[in-house]
Amino acid sequence: MNTVKKYAGLLWMALAIASYVFLVYTSYHQIHAKPTTDTIVQWVIFDVIFLPINIGLLIFGWLAFKGDYDHLPESDEEIVD
Amino acid sequence: MLLIYFYLQSLLISLFKSIAMSTISEKSLIRKVIFASSVGTLIEWYDFYIFGSLAPIIAAQFFPKTNPTAALLSTLATFAAGFIVRPFGALVFGRLGDKVGRKYTFLLTLVLMGGSTFAIGLIPGYEQIGFLAPILVLVLRLIQGLALGGEYGGAATYVAEHAPDHRRGFYTSWIQTTATLGLLLSLGIILFTRKSMAADPADSIKAFEAWGWRIPFWFSVVLVGMSVYIRMKMHESPLFSKLKSEGKTSLNPIKESLTHRSNLKMVLIALFGAAMGQGVVWYTGQFYAQTFLENTCKIDFEQTRTILICAIVFATPLFIFFGNLSDKVGRKWIIMLGLLGAVLMYRPIYRQMLNVTSTENMMVDSAKTQIQSVLTPAKEKNYGLQTVTSTYHYDNGITEKKVHVDTLYTSGAEKPQLIEKTSKQMPTDRYWILVGLIFLQILFVTMSYGPIAAFLVEMFPTKIRYTSMSLPYHLGNGVFGGLTPFIAVLMGTIYTTDKLVGLWYPISVATLCLIIGSLYLNNKTNNNVND
């Protein structure tokens, strides 16, 4: 199972990048098709808010690939550095 | 409303019983804790949702009326802004809660929420003060979002830190009912106010849309006052007090939560493996369902809300049931089953909602058809507004009312205004089918949401718990979930051929969360939060 978890990490990283590229691509086309304030504001909000979330997914994928999720902490002592 | 009444009554009885006893047992203490935390959180959700529930009226009051869709989108964007700032609230108040204490932090969030809700009810409309009106609404909405971001984590942490290990899922599930009951309270108060403004129903609706919508906002100040009073009497969480007296509180909870690799990985798995799926399931079942019934199925305002109210009343006890069950069988698989149900059933459920409310290929009973035309002349102009109201009765029992408005010139020329409103009334059998379909969606909500407070609390240590659990919860529930109605409606305007296209957003997010959660999360929980 740990091997699956590890290589799935690559998938999460790819998904983080691909989904953000798709979001920016859709934003560009929507704004281009209807360049009103409403449209621009909506899509810029989406792009800004999902950037840190997609970075989070990228980090999650990286940590999974590095094996950080092979064992989840069983006690609080394991959680804090 | 009835459920809230019984809910508050049972909690009050427990509270007074415990006060009457000279020795306070552990059980009565936890009941007081649950009461104080749940009522405050319920009120915060109420404050937050009355804005969303009144979105079309607020759009008409505060945003330029040139295009109703633009006005509605502006309000939804404001609504989303309320959700987007929630994660920032989680960080700001989470930090405060981990440094100063849980009790004072969630007192502060309650006051901020109540104050801003009350103030929204006082702002003059766009016609009176121009652009200052929408700006003020936006600012107050942002404060609401910030306050809510701080409230939930505090309440969940406070209850969890009082609860015994083997009952944590059960006790925190009371907090989990508050979001749904807050929505129920907001719907109930809006319906009640809308019907009580005047003796004549039409006049009552007019008065509500003109100024009566402000009453639910003002009502908040009474609720918040009561809740602040109750919370003031509570003591600080014993675990946090112990930590503070030993000088072991975190100096920088945000830094510890997000930069320590071992904590960051838990924040990320909490978000991508549980909170984001739960967020979209919550908002699809209770908010998008309402939008879909009203805007796509064209069910009338009142029936849409009573359908939702009935489904919520029947489903709410299941939060407690699944919270309790999670103490026995673990939290993970209950949450995952809720997500799986949503992924598999959303499209069949919504297709059925369309079928049940459809009048396509149905015969109209022409003997019962009513067409009424009213001409309202404009003062000193050569035209008037012609309003034609047609009521059709179909053989499947559905009654459809269409209101069409045109400009009629004195010369006899007619200019279509493209104002056409359609609303349908469901017969009893179809009404209850719709209640059942919404109930099924809320069942998935109760499975994914009931155990999640205990699940998140048990992932993090006391000194950074408030911050660490609040952030993934509000990113998942606030951003992924809160944007669901907005994104789903937006997808419907881009891909117009498929009425169910908006569902692909919650289905995709829930599927991703289901895979990540099933693969990476443990069903074993770290029940010890007394570190």
Which characteristics define this entry?
heterodimer; A: 81 residues; mainly alpha; 3 helices; B: 531 residues; alpha+beta; Growth Hormone, Chain: A; 4-stranded antiparallel beta sheet; 22 helices; 71% helix
Summed up:
The complex is a heterodimer of chains A (81) and B (531). With 81 residues, chain A is mainly alpha-helical.
What does the secondary structure layout of this molecule look like, with pairings?
The complex is a heterodimer of chains A (81) and B (531).
Chain A: H1 2-33, H2 37-65, H3 76-79
Helix pairs in contact in A: 1-2
Chain B: H1 2-20, H2 26-53, H3 55-62, H4 68-84, H5 86-99, H6 102-120, H7 126-129, H8 132-160, H9 168-196, H10 201-212, H11 214-232, H12 238-245, H13 253-259, H14 261-296, H15 301-315, H16 317-329, H17 332-357, E1 370-377, E2 383-393, E3 399-409, E4 414-425, H18 428-449, H19 452-457, H20 465-481, H21 484-494, H22 504-520
Antiparallel strand pairs in B: 1-2, 2-3, 3-4
Helix pairs in contact in B: 1-2, 2-6, 2-8, 2-9, 2-11, 3-4, 4-8, 4-20, 5-6, 5-8, 5-20, 6-8, 6-11, 8-9, 8-20, 9-10, 9-15, 9-16, 13-14, 14-15, 14-17, 14-18, 14-20, 14-22, 15-18, 16-18, 17-18, 17-22
CATH hierarchy class name of the largest domain in chain B:
Mainly Alpha
Global morphology of chain B:
globular
Based on CA inertia axes, which overall geometry of chain A fits?
elongated
What is the SS-derived class of chain A? mainly alpha
CATH H-level superfamily of the largest domain in chain B:
MFS general substrate transporter like domains
* Total domain units of chain B: 2
CATH topology of the largest domain in chain B: Growth Hormone, Chain: A
Task: List the helices and strands of chain A in order.
Answer: HHH
CATH architectural group of the largest domain in chain B: Up-down Bundle
Number of strands of chain B: 4
Helix tally of chain B equals 22
Helix content of chain B: over 70%
Mean pLDDT of chain B: 86
Major sheet characteristics of chain A: none
